[in-house]
């Protein structure tokens, strides 16, 4: 399982839930667009799936929402992101790793015939699976797990910490040591 594949899962899942996340934050499409410095139509196209979300857009959105969570100490928003995006992706990663471990016990990359669909469908499904060479060539840790970019790791950790509320006060203090953005 390549790190880029995992990152794309995160991006896709975030895009799928962008509308509800924005609404929980209490923002209109225009307000989110203003926060990002983009046109309202850009946010609308991302929410409706008319435009695919890029990694840069994903990172910008996660950063904007993380800053809002810290600013307002909004654990509900953090929990929504964790519940709708992070938890399902982490579960998917665990399931994929289990499948790969099961696959290593059997024949490597042997086509799986489920008895459903035709040969062309099965061949298409096989093409989507990364080959053993691709898996080995992807960036991995010493344990063989793929590594995500530093930004993706940081955002996942920050969102998890904010969802638990443990780090919200510390991050707020670090961002606003004078007591907040409106206290001067």
Total number of beta strands: 0
Structural class: mainly alpha
From the alpha-carbon coordinates, what is the Rg to the nearest angstrom? 20 Å
The proportion of strand residues reads under 5%
Summarize the main sheet. none
Helix content range of the residues, please?
55-70%
Instruction: Give the terminus-to-terminus CA distance.
Output: 49 Å
Order of helices and strands: HHHHHHHHHH
Count of helical stretches:
10
Model regions low in confidence, pLDDT < 50 over at least 5 residues: 110-140
Oligomer: single chain
The CATH architecture classification of the domain at 1-101 is: Orthogonal Bundle
- In CATH, the topology of the domain at 1-101 is named 434 Repressor (Amino-terminal Domain)
- Which word captures the global form? globular
What is the CATH C-level name of the domain at 1-101? Mainly Alpha
Kindly report the average pLDDT value. Answer: 75
Keywords: Membrane, Transmembrane, Transmembrane helix
Region (Disordered): 96-141
Biased composition (Low complexity): 131-141
Pfam family, one: HTH_3
Descriptive notes:
- It is built from 10 helices and no strands.
- Helix 1 packs antiparallel against helix 6, helix 5 runs parallel beside helix 9 and helix 6 packs across helix 9.
- About 17% of the residues have low confidence.
- Helices cover 69% and strands 0% of the residues.
- The protein has a domain of 101 residues: 434 Repressor (Amino-terminal Domain), CATH 1.10.260.
- The chain has 184 residues and is mainly alpha-helical.
């Amino acid at each position: 399982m390549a790190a880029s594949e995992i990152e794309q899962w995160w991006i896709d899942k975030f895009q799928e839930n962008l509308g509800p996340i924005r609404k929980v934050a209490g923002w209109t499409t225009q307000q989110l667009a203003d926060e990002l410095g983009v046109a309202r139509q850009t946010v609308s196209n991302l929410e409706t799936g008319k435009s695919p979300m890029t990694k840069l857009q994903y990172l910008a959105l996660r950063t904007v929402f993380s800053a809002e969570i810290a600013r307002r100490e909004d654990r509900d928003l953090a929990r929504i992101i964790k519940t709708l995006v992070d938890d399902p992706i982490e579960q998917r990663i665990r399931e994929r790793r289990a499948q790969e471990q099961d696959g290593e016990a059997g024949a490597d990359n042997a086509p799986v015939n489920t008895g459903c669909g035709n040969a062309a469908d099965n061949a298409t499904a096989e093409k989507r699976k990364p080959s053993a060479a691709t898996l080995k060539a992807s960036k991995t840790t010493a344990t063989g797990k793929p590594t995500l970019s530093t930004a993706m790791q940081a955002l996942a950790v920050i969102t998890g910490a904010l969802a638990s509320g443990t780090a919200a006060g510390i991050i707020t203090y670090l961002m606003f040591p004078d007591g907040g953005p409106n206290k001067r």
